[in-house]
Amino acid sequence: MAALSIYALTGAALVGLGFFGLLAARHLLRRVVAFNLIGSGLFLYFGAAATRGAAPDPVPQALIITGIVVALAASALAVALVVAQVRAAGRATLPEEEDAP
Amino acid sequence: MSALLACLVLPLLGALAAVALPRRAVAAVLAGVVALTLVAAVGLAVAVHSGGVVRLALGGWSPPLGIALAADGLGAAFVLLTALVMAGVAAAARDEMTPQGAGPRAAFGFWPLMLLLWGALNAVFLSRDLFNLYVGIELLTLAAVALVAIGGRAEAIAAAMRYLIFALAGSLLYLAGVVLIYGAHGTLDIDLVAARDAAAPDGLALALMTAGLLVKTALFPFHVWLPPAHASAPAPASALLSALVPKASFVILLRLWFEAMPDLGTDRALLLLGVLGAAAILWGSLRALVQARLKLIVAYSTVAQLGYLFLVFPLAGGAAGAQPWTAGAWTGAIFQALSHGLAKAAMFLAAGLFMAAAGSDRLGALRGLARVMPMTAFAFALASVTLISLPPSGGFTAKYLLMTSSFAAGQWIWALVMTLGGLLTAGYLYRPMAALFAREGGEGVQTVARARQAVPLVLAGLAILLGILSAAPFDFLQIGRPEAAEEGP
Amino acid sequence: MTAALGLALDAALCALILGVALAVVAGRGVFRAVVFFIVYGLLAAVAWVRLDAVNVALAEAAIGAGLTGVLLLAAHGRLRRAEAAQDLAHGMPWSAALAGGALAAALGWAWFEMPIPVEPGPELAEALPRAGVGNPVTAVLLNFRAWDTLLESIVLLAALIGVWMLAREGDWREPLGRPQHARPGGVMAGFGRVLPPVGLLVGVWLVWAGADHPGGAFQGGTVLAAVGLVAVLAGVIRPPWIGAPLWQGALVLGPAVFLLAGIAGAVLAGGFLTLPEGFAKPAIVTIEVALTVSIAVTLAFLVLGPPEAEGAG
Hey, where are the domains in chain A? Predict the structure, then answer.
């Protein structure tokens, strides 16, 4: 259980770190990387939670694999958008939000 | 059951066909898929109307092992709305999204993306499994972002990028809540979650899922991604994005707060959702008032109109669950979602036709268009009637139900906000209307085929019809509603 | 290995993971962030092995670190001109730090408050022998929760169409990706001839073994995609055009077979996606093979990117 707590808390910290990166980073590629950190940390947390019972539960493992593939699909689209954004606007950042309340 | 299955499978099969088949075959397949799915959606609504909730355990495995689907009044109504809007958009885009009309890139991508969006929406409206809903909204998000990117210009790409960042952050917050639910209860099924033994992290799980879904529904103050995204996509795509996509995350919110975890709906949390909704109504309307381009006005109007949906939480959620006015508030919010869907699709399609005719959607360029395109201008006006909530439109019924509930509940402040919102709506729609119906202008514009002009008119007409025939849909929307059974008229 | 040693190993691994993640988020330079992210993915795969989740470890290494890393590196290579853009907002973004910190703290708190559930233990143990495959993760992915997996394979397709929508109008009829030029007789060309047969074997093995051992369509498909990409880089295979019938067919084969099998279940076995007990194994293997083909082609196309003309910026 102690080992599981280590992994779960690492996962929680990764989620926080990734979320910080997603909000704070300006370079779009960095934001894509941060998004992947959040997902990966969340899965680690989930994996640790699934190993607590008497027998390991395969359902979370399957969900995590699904989640990893979905994250890859989203990352691929995001990365292609970054490249297109640089090509169209010449910079790898988004124009500042004009409508922030 | 077969109608439910057809609603799920047909759009996805159609999307695969649209990718794999040669161009000439795609048009025929497309017409067939749209027609059949529309029939299936009607069939599903009829089945729910006559026999109550339609349930399906996928693969023959019942929860917690497998994934359950169910079509209740709420789900079936949104499946039907989706089918109507999709059919309209398909008809309107048939001549536009061709290699000659929009270029080979857009002509290739639009159709499979539209069908993927359709399949994802139906999957979300019918699923009873929290993780399956996650996969569904991810499919929805990627298809929606790709539809924005079809726009092609720099502003469309930046809008798509911002949309994706917000949507992915929202997805992960939602997923974090799902992880906490499964970690504590070992199930993802909404009905089993409703029957769970409460655990300490449940509140956090609901908060995380809600936060994520609010971002995806573009509720104030998470709305900043929506106007540029909806304004820079091609008009048929904008119609789908504005009319349907935010409704998917809203339906999941309803399922969470009313079906899975109604016990956690504290007054303060419900009030917060209502306040954000009210802020969205006012802020979105004010922003719409100062825009110079028609598509941006219509997009900010979506931000405002989505705000009305969230009044359902303080009026019908939590301890208010079994009060006499909750059925009205619940139905009013869903009526609002349905009539806004129809009217907004009509508005964006009309805006697309105005742009095709005038070459721009700046208000100055639209002057006098009503004389050249009376049918489209009339459709725009009819859709405006629904958004301003004048009788006898569906929007009127929606706001009437919400207002009477807020008086009955003693929460008259929401009625005040809605009145103010109605006035502001009239204000921001007056400007494009004044331009369209101006006495001068309208010379030298491109002509638009009558058949294309008919589509927005039909959709706007359906939004009015929803108000005229409001009695039957009212009963329909109660089917499968958690408290509906133990409640008086 | 004693418990104490194991615990020390876990703690060291997690400290390393966190250190690398910190370098990803806060380090200078986007290139370094990407490289550290790949290192991070490999360490995370080790963590999954420690958690007894070899299926996930394979997926994390192949997809999370490998393919995502390749995507990010390839994109970075094309962004050099924009490198001057600032990485992080000016100063310390306190609101972002607060949000991230609160999220981490909330999840940490929830960990200690979370009860251990009883479900779905008994139902799962009872159903597994009827699932048709010995690997419980594969049973969940392709039988119990097949609808998730079906939608997920379509998510990949949606992403690919989205990537293609980012092609420039004039480039639509060009081959996928940037034009590749491998020197004949160079290292890449040699590599490209030796690696594919080996990788092909590994990929096929992962799919085949996935029925009863760790592995499966997604892990195997990723390896096959990598094989294809190396072959393209080496000039052994030329990337196709959008609309080439055979390739478009390969893209949709997996989801199509999966959907049709699901419909067959509805017609013959009484329910959508129902696999009758005697047919479960052959049905799952058929679906997995078809899925692998589509996953491999889709992933490879995702990495290649939208079609681009020679000499385009």
Answer: 2-89
